[in-house]
Design goal:
Elements lengths: L9 H6 L2 H8 L17 H17 L3 H10 L4 E6 L5 H12 L3 E5 L13 H11 L2 E6 L4 H10 L7 E6 L5 H15 L8 E6 L6 H10 L5 E6 L8 H9 L4 E4 L2 H4 L5 E4 L25 H6 L5 E3 L20 H19 L3 H11 L1
Parallel strand pairs: 1-2, 1-3, 3-4, 5-6, 5-8, 6-7, 8-9
Helix pairs in contact: 3-13, 3-14, 5-13, 8-9, 8-13
């Protein structure tokens, strides 16, 4: 049973840097108990999850393999608790649970929750812990997933929490699927090292960019280029994190000049749901930060185009048919890597690998 947070108060835990929080989040075998931050995953664990994802997707291609997977943890139940709108992340987690036979419940509309009656989020989460074995949580509130994980670990029934998006700061499982997509894209072409990744769009408010940027620091010689209007450029905290790790990076607003060097281009939409004033984002000229037929001509033959979705007009539809467009595969990869994360959290990764080695 995970009880590591019993020996630290919330004030003390929340004040720790992420590196010092990580031991409280992990199980003795190195698998995550709570998944809260992109930074809690090192290269070894990322490789372990990628290998498990590959095994699960191969096993699931046959009826017998599908039945094996669905019997693994069919006695477990997961609450998908989303107080922030989502379709892709919700369906990805739901599908991941179904692959492993995990039964699910959901709250996606706060008007149907007791929070509508004034119940605190802490009490809501404690209530869910009475009925479920895992909570998968998405919230617009910064740091809420972290606070709820601490509360669960200090309850009489500790259970794991997966952060499916928390405020503007973290989206660790999106970063996992992004890394998994990069690993699969370059596995026959030198691997994820000595690469240039170009992030484009709303970088100031895009939590997917923040999480992936931090994860990429784990890999050797990954240069990061951030392309955005000044008002939407990447935050100073990420800049400081990259400087501390001596990662090569560059901030610019010249998209076309950045494309020829790119091994991966990570496009993002304008995050106007975070506007302080209505129409604030509309005042920003984003016409120079879109990807279409002209930009395809500048991208190297081995380069790839990614997007966390949903998109608006930042990628033209004509790009979809190009073999370098990875965003639809990227979305599907999310289902497999989330299944692997759930399997590792519940301790059945070895059984999956054993089945794979014996039957495939």
């Amino acid at each position: 049973m995970h009880q590591r947070m019993f020996d630290v108060s919330w004030d003390a835990f929340s004040a720790l840097p992420v590196a010092e929080k990580t031991p409280y989040l992990m199980q003795p075998d190195g698998a995550p108990f709570h998944t809260l931050f992109a930074q809690q995953f090192d290269v070894a664990l990322l490789g372990r999850l990628a290998a498990l994802s590959n095994a699960i997707r191969q096993i699931a291609k046959t009826r017998s393999g599908t039945l094996f997977l669905q019997d693994l943890i069919c006695h477990k139940r997961a609450m998908i608790y989303f107080s922030q709108p989502s379709s892709r992340t919700f369906l990805s987690f739901l599908s991941a649970c179904q692959i492993l036979g995990v039964q699910t419940g959901e709250v996606r509309d706060m008007a149907t929750s007791s929070e509508f009656k004034g119940e605190s989020k802490e009490d809501s989460v404690r209530t869910f812990s009475s009925y479920f074995d895992m909570i998968i949580m998405r919230s617009p509130e910064k740091g809420l997933a972290e606070r709820m994980a601490w509360a669960l670990s200090n309850s009489d029934r500790p259970l794991p929490l997966i952060n499916a998006g928390s405020g503007k700061d973290q989206h660790p499982t999106q970063a996992l699927l992004d890394i998994y997509t990069l690993l699969r894209s370059f596995e026959r072409n030198g691997g994820l090292r000595d690469r240039t990744v170009v992030f484009v769009g709303d970088l100031a408010r895009g939590r997917t960019v923040r999480s992936l940027s931090l994860l990429l620091t784990q890999y050797p010689n990954i240069r990061q280029i951030f392309v955005a209007p000044q008002s939407l450029q990447i935050g100073e905290d990420i800049v400081q994190a990259l400087e501390a790790k001596k990662v090569a990076f560059h901030l610019t607003d010249d998209f076309h000049a950045s494309i020829p060097a790119a091994d991966a281009i990570y496009m993002t939409r304008i995050q106007d749901e975070w506007d302080h004033d209505k129409g604030e984002s509309a005042a920003v000229d984003i016409s120079r930060f879109t990807f279409g037929a002209d930009e395809l001509k500048l991208l190297k033959p081995t380069g790839i185009i990614m997007h966390p979705l949903p998109r608006r007009s930042e990628i033209a539809v004509c790009v979809d048919s190009d073999p370098r467009a990875m965003y639809w595969r990227q979305m599907r990869n999310g289902m497999w890597i989330r299944a692997a994360l759930i399997a590792e959290t519940f301790g059945c990764g070895k059984r999956i690998h054993d089945y794979y080695s014996q039957n495939l």
